[in-house]
Design a protein that fits this description.
alpha+beta; 2 domains; two-stranded antiparallel ribbon
Length: 108
């Protein structure tokens, strides 16, 4: 038996997306820029994995949602692990910032 080939989320139809209409391909401009940035990062940091995110706001009055696209040198599971760790750290830093702010304002 052959190995099952995973369909990329970017190629999923609205019916296959958990939130229909929530995903669209990056604009042509973003695609070119993202490719150039990733190529540069791989040249400058050959020993590192890297990811970039691009957020495209929908034009006012547009019938499409905002888009977020990313490019990465790692598999989705590894990217998700990095994002979870990043978010946990940001939550911790936010709590520290709030505590410092309360102390400075005398409300703590």
């Amino acid at each position: 038996m052959g190995e099952a080939k995973r369909k990329l989320a970017r190629n999923a139809s609205d019916e296959e997306n958990s939130i229909p209409g929530s995903h669209g391909p990056a604009s042509e401009k973003s695609q070119h820029i993202m490719v150039a940035i990733m190529q540069t990062l791989k040249e400058v940091y050959p020993e590192c994995d890297c990811s970039i995110f691009v957020f495209e706001k929908a034009p006012a009055g547009s019938d499409r949602n905002d888009r977020y696209n990313y490019a990465s040198t790692v598999e989705r599971a590894d990217m998700n692990a990095v994002l979870r760790a990043f978010l946990a750290r940001q939550d911790e830093m936010e709590r520290i910032d709030e505590a410092i702010s309360k102390r400075a304002s005398g409300t703590a």
